Amino acid sequence: MANKYDRTLSDHFDGHGYSDHGTLWNSSWTTAKTPWDRQQPSVALSDLLLNKPELFEFSTDKTTRTALVPGCGRGHDVLALSTFGYDVYGLDLSARAIQEARKNEEAWNAEGKLVAKKGLLGNRTWLVGDFFSNEWVEKSGVPGGKFDLIFDYTFGCALPWEARPAWAKRIVELLALEGRLVCLEFPTTKPPSARGPPYNFTPEAYLAQLGHPGEKVYSNDTDAIVDGKWAGSPPSKDGLKRLMHIKPERTHLAGMEGDVVEDWISVWAHNA
């Protein structure tokens, strides 16, 4: 099973603590070693938006809706979300990644791929910054610093388990009151003991961590097994509740084993 995950990335990070990760991600971009890049947007996300539009309806008549893609890389999903009418903000810690995203946007334009699927085409804004800081939020100019849709794919799983409580708490802070978080859950079947990134992230772990942001939900610091205290427990008042959890009909090859889809896609909302 471990062979389906590119080992060069794990080798690059091996022996380094979490405090070094930002530098390591940036060096991967500057040396053009980006094995995680899927070279296309998520079909699972597009299928969800097309087939389940009721999950993304607001009680208020908002004329403009915002979306955030943290760890956007070359921005494939940023570009795709804009075709659904969202004003999308692509965020990455690496300035080189954002340079590549701008090139990708130019290529989409040249190829005539930036076409609205519904209504108007949304705007795209590229930001360099640390997901956990407020500087990029202020620079974005998004009212209240809250986003109507957040898409997480190969971002949460790129963080080691020690950083996941803060990841979940930050997601909650950035999600608008009626907003929706969409997670393309990956890698769900990678052994907990296997090196990362990406690190094992099971549906049970998504449920426990997003339902209890800021809490340490794992049984210890050496594996990704959810502590029985959190397994199956209802979300806290400040947590997120899961509205939907399905296997997508289509996903990236990295989320499949032969013809079997291993990814899950989930939709979340504020519990309070």
From TrEMBL:
Phylogenetic classification of the source organism: Eukaryota, Fungi, Dikarya, Ascomycota, Pezizomycotina
Keyword S-adenosyl-L-methionine carried by entry: yes
Coiled-coil intervals: none
GO BP annotation list: methylation
Superkingdom of origin organism: Eukaryota
Molecular function per GO: S-adenosylmethionine-dependent methyltransferase activity
Name by which UniProt lists this protein: Methyltransferase domain-containing protein
UniProt keyword annotations, A-Z: Methyltransferase, Phosphoprotein, S-adenosyl-L-methionine, Transferase
Keyword Phosphoprotein part of the UniProt annotation: yes
Gene source species: Monosporascus ibericus
Pfam families: TPMT
